Amino acid sequence: MDIAVTNEVSLLEDPTDTSGFLRAWIGSRSVGGMMDPQEELVASWDAHGKGLASTQEALTNTYGSMSISLPKVQMSVPGPGERSGVSALQVEFMAARSAAAGDDEISIDLAA
């Protein structure tokens, strides 16, 4: 799974400050990525149906003691793929905020 977090950052000018800037402002934020899960039976996981319906759902992956959670993702219609000679799907996704407060598109938990 590949995850990309992009932020549009603008520097707000302040002629009275010695640096010339007041602060940095994050104007927009986008969290998305690509995953390549192995193909499953449609009865187990209907990736095409979810992509066509623009279904939003949670996505969590655990790697050893690290957990990456995206509480609300919208997947695109998957394309054909292959991973180590095994049939897989190429699925792009975009994360959305799950609460009105925002800034909760992704969380990374590093357990001790």
- Specify the helix fraction band: under 10%
Termini gap: 23 Å
The biggest beta sheet is recorded as: 7 strands, antiparallel
Tally of helical segments: 1
Tell me the overall shape: elongated
The unreliable regions are none
Tell me the number of structural domains. Answer: 1
Taken as a percent bin, the fraction of beta residues is over 45%
Structural class: mainly beta
Mean pLDDT: 89
Number of strands: 7
Topology at a glance:
Elements: E1 2-13, E2 21-35, H1 47-53, E3 56-63, E4 66-75, E5 79-83, E6 86-95, E7 107-110
Descriptive notes:
The protein contains 1 helix and 7 strands; from the N terminus they run ββαβββββ. The chain is elongated, with a radius of gyration of 18 Å. Strands 1, 2, 3, 4, 5, 6 and 7 form a 7-stranded antiparallel beta sheet that branches. It has one domain. The mean pLDDT is 89. The chain is mainly β.
Summarize the structure.
The chain is about 5% helix and about 55% strand. It has one helix and seven strands.
Which terms would index this structure?
elongated, mainly beta, 7 strands, 112 residues
